[in-house]
Design goal:
Blueprint (H helix, E strand, L loop, with lengths): L7 H8 L2 E5 L12 H17 L2 H19 L5 E7 L11 E7 L11 E7 L5 H20 L6 E7 L3 E8 L2 E5 L3 E2 L3 H12 L1
Parallel strand pairs: 1-7, 4-5
Antiparallel strand pairs: 2-3, 3-4, 5-6, 6-7, 6-8
Length: about 200
């Protein structure tokens, strides 16, 4: 089994994860974005949602948002897309991650600590929650093996037009009860900036 095959039930049973719900980011402020960025994102979103594939959504919605976060954080993070993340095959913590974000600014090689996983899906958010949690556990394991454990790993599942955020602390995942939508990218950007700063 690879991490992209996990369901919510399997991460609970096979990985020993407890799942809770909470409003994680209701109080996070929106981040102002330039008119140029907003125009480009709107054009990209229109195209991606018309094409309606996971690849189009990744390229024209998700990647531009993550690149803008990287720019606003003065390149203090590194972003990896479509890389193998084979951490523990016996536990099913192996496979290709859509996006991995590290607090290490080195871009050529993935280095710990991995702080955020972004899982892109084409159809619905729920289908991405299990794989995202498995990838977050893989990130937690990777950080520990690399000698840079961090208390909280974040995740996001997105279909491009909607985003759901998750938080992993020890063996407990908290799912945000709210969903955030691409027509308010300032809020999505505020959450990304808060978890990556």
């Amino acid at each position: 089994m690879a991490d992209h095959e996990f369901t919510i039930e399997q991460v609970q049973n096979r990985l020993g994860i407890t799942i809770e719900d909470a409003y994680l980011f209701a109080s996070i402020a929106e981040v102002p974005l330039t008119a140029t960025f907003l125009d480009g994102l709107k054009r990209g979103s229109t195209l991606a949602l018309a094409v309606n594939t996971e690849k189009a959504k990744s390229e024209f919605i998700i990647a531009p948002l993550l690149l803008e976060v990287k720019a606003q954080l003065h390149d203090a993070i590194s972003i990896f897309s479509g890389v193998d993340f084979n951490i523990d095959a016996e536990r099913g913590l192996n496979g290709v991650c859509d996006f991995i974000i590290s607090k290490n600014r080195r871009q050529h090689v993935l280095a710990a600590p991995v702080i955020t996983i972004v899982e892109a899906k084409n159809d619905n958010l729920r289908n991405g929650v299990g794989p995202c949690i498995a990838e977050m556990v893989a990130a937690q394991t990777f950080n520990l093996k690399e000698g840079t454990p961090i208390a909280t790993i974040y995740g996001a599942v997105t279909i491009g037009s909607a985003w759901k955020f998750l938080k992993l602390e020890e063996a407990t995942v908290t799912l945000d009860l709210d969903e955030y939508f691409i027509n308010t990218p300032q809020k999505i950007m505020g959450i990304l900036m808060a978890i990556l700063a």
